[in-house]
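Lecture notes, unit on protein representations.

Consider one protein chain, 152 amino acids long.
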Amino acid sequence: MKKVPLDGGDYTMDHTALIYLMDKNGKFVAPFNVRRRPEDAAADLRRFLDDQPIGARRTGVIERVWRWSVRRPALAGMTVALLLSLIAGLGGVFWQWGRAETHLKEAVKQQGLAESSLSVARSETARAEQHLQEAGRQRAAAEREAQRAEAN
């Protein structure tokens, strides 16, 4: 960005980052970076006019992101904070997911043990009821024997 003076002492800001270099048919050739030395730009234009390859290059993603963050630091900071919170949130979700999977495996194991214990308890209850019935029969028999012995 640079100040461009106007009549009356005012100024405007030139936000030009690059110029698009076009051929005589209006076809895009390359971006032409204006933030370089005028000698380099003139040499590239001479090479273009002589149908030679020019040194203009497309800026890389990292460079474009860096320049954007320098131009808009507040928005870049908020974007970084958003990305960090997203990464932390996803990390927390996956961590809790792992814990839930571990707890599920333990719960299934405990359910198997509980069902096994329930089966044993039911068979022992049935056996105890059989013993109770047998004890009732033996008591009744003992009471009959006691009554016969008293009668004699």
